[in-house]
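Hi again,

Forgot to attach this to my earlier email, sorry! This is the prediction with shikimate-3-phosphate bound. I've pasted everything inline since the attachment limit keeps bouncing my files.
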Amino acid sequence: MRKYVYPKKSLSGIITVPGDKSISHRAVMFGAIAEGITEITGFLTGNDCMSTIECFKKLGINIEINNDTVKVYGKGLSGLTKPKDTLDVGNSGTTIRLISGILAAQPFSCEITGDSSIQKRPMNRVIEPLSLMGAKMKGLNKDNFAPLRIDGTKLKAIEYVLPVASAQVKSAILLASLFADDITTIVEPIASRNHTEIMLNYFGADIKNKNGKIISSPVKQLYGKTVSVPSDISSAAFFIVAGLIVPNSHIIIKNVGINETRTGIIDSLKLMGGNIQIINKKDKIGEPTADIEVKTSNLHSITLEGAIIPRMIDEIPVFAVAALFANGTTIVKNAEELKVKESNRIATITEELRKMGAEIKETDDGMIIQGNSKLHGAEVESHNDHRIAMSLAIAALNAENETIINNAECVSISFPSFYDYIEKF
Ligand code: S3P
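Structure tokens for the complex follow:
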């Protein structure tokens, strides 16, 4: 699909964006291995989370979907059954990495694959710790890449230092640790999102965090729960940036998850002078939410580096768009993980924004972005990466003349109705 996006003179309104992708995936997975029913409201029905549902259906779990309400009929820790054919995670890194932690402990073997992007993403980061726990896991064509074959077994507890700040790897080990013979310890050099720890404990697990050391005891059982999914801050981020850079704008985004392991985008944009207010704070079973109010702002440049990077890893492409309109030169460092996302996001965002007239340079671990830009519309590529397509659309709102985004349909991975929101403003 080719999508035409036109500049806007102002943006105003109160919006609600879809449910959090990370939390939606986890609610299905944990519900599947819990006893009893898990009822999820506000579920994100984007392609990635639907891939998780399809995988668990193939593993013998009954799952009912009614709009954004999902009922998972859990079968307990030992209730999954060997799938008849290969599990397919589509484009979803979260699905393949987290489910590997569960499959590593099953008394059966299975194969799992995904689309061409998934087949290029590194799986050694989960193969290594899960193999140390005793599972047999390897790439069928190339050692560390999907398609993978996983031979589940009885697992041993490990002590493991995460080589990268990755919630997907941490979560795979935590899921495996539920089935292990003893206490598993994970050391996290820099904190990554902690939805797994929060939700698994809510389902009955025993996971503690002592100064970055995560300690998980095996459990006999998890219990099905009701889960109300907050709106995704990663989706809200597009409209936070749009509200800051498009003149005369005032947007309120309702009921957004503001877990502090995810709010780096708000902190960094505020550091740049962004007028962002957090109002109506609430708590949803350990996951805080709030409304986010944004007004057009005069931004200035910053250097973005260090521990804030994992707290906004998925928002860095749209952060780069904000930086184009800030006063001064913004530098992004320590963001090499962007190279192994759905696309090489350092390369793809710089290449495409340049087509719109941006002065932005790729570096080994980030980018250098010249501010005070005057962008013009252009024909750009999504690289089949949802967050690249949406970031380019936000840039297009503040560019001269129309922009055409090729392969724009990939937004359905995390935000199927994204273009309707832009058109309705
Ligand atoms: C996610 C973790 C992050 C993030 C991804 C979702 C999760 O990946 O980029 O979109 O739900 O755990 P990494 O663990 O690779 O950093």
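The two ends are 21 Å apart (CA to CA). The longest strand covers residues 275-284.

That should be everything now.

G.
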